TrEMBL record:
The protein's name: Homoserine kinase
GO biological process: threonine biosynthetic process
Keywords: Amino-acid biosynthesis, ATP-binding, Kinase, Nucleotide-binding, Threonine biosynthesis, Transferase
Highest taxon, organism lineage: Eukaryota
A Pfam family reported for this protein in Swiss-Prot or TrEMBL: GHMP_kinases_N
Source organism (scientific name): Lachancea mirantina
Amino acid sequence: MARGFKISVPASSANIGPGYDVLGIGLALYLELDVTIDSKAAPETNSDPNNCKLTYSEDSEGATTVPLRSDENLITRTALYVLRCNNVRSFPSGTKVHVHNPIPLGRGLGSSGAAVVAGVMLGNEVGQLGFSKQRMLDYCLMIERHPDNITAAMMGGFAGSFLRELTPAEVERREIPLSEVLPEPSGGDDTGLVPPLPPTDIGHHVKYQWNHKIKCIAIIPDFELSTADSRGVLPKAYTSTDLVFNLQRLAVLTTALTQDPPDPNLIYPAMQDRVHQPYRKTLIPGLTEILSSVTPSTYPGLLGICLSGAGPTILALAVDNFDDIAQEIINRFAKKNVTCRWKVIELAYNGAEVNPL
Ligand SMILES: Nc1ncnc2c1ncn2[C@@H]1O[C@H](COP(=O)(O)OP(=O)(O)OP(=O)(O)O)[C@@H](O)[C@H]1O
Ligand SMILES: N[C@@H](CCO)C(=O)O
């Protein structure tokens, strides 16, 4: 019998200044997958080696660049990983996945986190595996190995997360190279290898409250920065002064963003960071000046400003004055020959969902 469902996964912004690899917020900009499975449908010509006909809407971010073979595309590769861990080699025959993706790729808005969460949910649904969100997080964390975007995308809202300490055997399973986790393009021949199952309950998280008056302004430069490159410029060790600087702010920020009225004199300094943003200025023209170009005293309504995820998007939290704040940052980027678009985005309070089509 034919069946159909829709998977929706929010974008996310990680770090929020001092919470490197810890804090994330789900953003109401949704990656959507319309999935139909009709085993009686006539097989497609040029059919996919794993029975999945994948398409993107024309207006999707990445529509002309993402691969459409199921063992090459991040969403469907992830789904295949979940299926193969559970002894299902491919999608059911007659599977069609139509993607609508408004999340810009490689800009610090959690496009890969959303793709991985969507892929794990897709594998769980088509394989009828019945996993909880907590178990699905384990699968996600085998692929995207820091929990901030993944947790925000899966659970929604404003979340803090950490990875539990693993036993040596679990470490071996989890630190296996990604190429041995995700299926590699096979040229049609399935090697039959069963990928490593994720250890259980890898990620732990809490959801904080969020003052609903606080909106997110995303100023999105027109160039991509891969998360891998942006992590590559970070040091391996930090001084205790810099670590304490961030920990103090992190502790205050998680409550400051819940209070009413929100206090810019607390939030603005609590969003400062010494762990990742100073090092990323080499990859993002004008970053240091841009982050100090708007303050609550020059732009009333502004609460705080930071790099969104690994960048290059700038995230400003504000209750008012959205156009002027965005325009100032856009003008600063323009002086460095970088053009931007911008959006005001609400939080996605509920996280990823599956609903009938
Ligand atoms: N909807 C999608 N479909 C297929 N591949 C995707 C999709 N979204 C993201 N990707 C893959 O993920 C890559 C971007 O991941 P990357 O981690 O570098 O950036 P990001 O997730 O947008 O930023 P950040 O992690 O800082 O928030 C894209 O180049 C593409 O390969
Ligand atoms: N915490 C991550 C988020 C990006 O995926 C980083 O800043 O590299």
